[in-house]
Amino acid sequence: MEETISVRIPKEDLKMIEEASKFVKRKRSDVLRQIVELGVKQVMLEIAIEKFQKNEATASKAASIAGIPLTLFLDVLVERKMDFHYTKEDLRKDFEDLL
Q1: What are the φ/ψ torsions at residue 18 (nearest 5 degrees)?
Q2: Are 70 and 97 in contact (CB under 8 A)?
Q3: Residue 95: band (very low, low, confident or very high) from pLDDT cuts 50, 70, 90
Q4: What's 55's DSSP letter?
Q5: Mean pLDDT of all residues in the chain?
Q6: Cα torsion at 18, 44, 74, 83 (round to 10°)?
Q7: What secondary structure letter does DSSP report for 58?
Q8: Over 90: is that where the pLDDT of 90 sits?
Q9: How far apart are CA 90 and CA 28, in angstroms?
Q10: Measured by CB atoms within 10 angstroms of the end CB, which terminus of the chain is less buried, N or C?
Q11: 26-58 CB burial, b ≥16 within 10 A, e <16
């Protein structure tokens, strides 16, 4: 269910949103919804990576937090050249999570 909220947007950001709206020939509200969706996904990915790095979540759990498949989460770690610190016990937990 969608909900209407009110937010204050800096003038510079609003100008870019309006430009984007013109480029894609869509309503400003449609562009804003897309921006929010992309932003939320990025924030959740960053939270997941942080939890994984702090050993607060297995790779499988972190992928779930980010809302992406485990293989994609592992690809992100590789792209960012991050340490996996992945043990056999972590692998076992991830397999359990998948079942």
Answers
A1: -65, -40
A2: no
A3: confident
A4: T
A5: 91
A6: 110
A7: -
A8: no
A9: 45
A10: N
A11: eeeeebbeeeeeeeeeeeebeebbebbeeeebb
Closest by CA to 46, choosing from 54, 33, 95, is: 54
CA distance 22 to 91: 48
In one letter, which amino acid is 56? E
Is pLDDT above 80 for 84?
Answer: no
* CB 21 within 8 Å of CB 27: yes
State the pLDDT at residue 93. Answer: 79
Q: Is the pLDDT of residue 31 over 90?
A: yes
How far apart are the C-alpha atoms of 2 and 47, rounded to whole Å? 24
Question: Within 10 Å of residue 99's Cβ, how many Cβ atoms?
Answer: 4
Has residue 86 got a pLDDT over 80?
A: no
